[in-house]
Write a structure and sequence with these properties.
2 domains; 6-stranded parallel sheet; 318 residues; UDP-galactose 4-epimerase, domain 1; alpha/beta; Rossmann fold; binds serine
Amino acid sequence: MCARKSPRIMVTGAAGQIGSELTLALRGRYGNENVVATGHKTKPSPKLRDSGPFEFIDVTRRESIEAVVDKFNVDTIYHLAAILSAVGEEKPHLAWDVNMNGLYNILEVARERQGVRVFCPSSIAAFGPETPRENTPQETVLRPKTMYGVTKVAGELLCDYYFHRYGLDVRGVRYPGILSSETPPGGGTTDYACEIFYEAIKHKRYTCFVREDTVLPMMYMPDCIRGAIELMEADLSQLKHHADFNLAAMSFSAGELAAEIKKHIPELICEYEPDFRQQIADSWPRSIDDSAAREEWGWKPQYGLEAMVTDMLENLRK
Ligand code: SER
């Protein structure tokens, strides 16, 4: 039997919250030299920079993507570079440019080279206030009210278009808010769920920018990464969906999260001062039905609230 050839991977947004950990996981799985990390402005951590190739690119300039794809003979792209929901409301034009033109460039580079596969995450931000908020179905109303959400819905449709029109193997999931201890998130609405950990450890006090009773779907980073890799390794013939899989792990309110952290840090004081992000949070689902992902590629989350909080605090204290 001959060994399966290792994929040659490029990760965009590799210095970001998901990218920084996904890149290391991919390097561990497929070999350091087979995974080129790329970033734009954010400086890579020493771990990321020293464990394998790193290149600067601007996804809004197609030639800068092409240069890296050709230099490293890339056959798989994890496209994570994006502007998130809160910054997207402050800078809608930038969000459109990076999220839409960036994705279009990635898809075009992949199409022209034939056989290049793409992973592109969507988000719970694809949903809107008219969407059923509990156990949100796979097939449902997609009328987001943020520019970020608009680019995510358009992105899902564009990815599916490339699959049906050109046979490009593009896959993606609608991630919930992601909790992580390695790299803080930047510019999202679900960022409070990470910030509270950092502040609980440092200052024992946190002022949360959404109301105490705000419930959103969330996921811990190990599940987030496993989800991406398992979807990309799934048998294409089993997939009925492509770039828009609902994905769930846990749901909790901001108050429930604070209470769970207080079990470990009883002195924590959490106050609530909702700002413009409250309205964004209120337009997103409270829980997600991910049965399509479970049926088509065997998705199953491992972390719930308790296990996630214990693990987050342990990692952050290190
Ligand atoms: N976590 C993202 C945000 O809050 C949603 O995908 O913008």
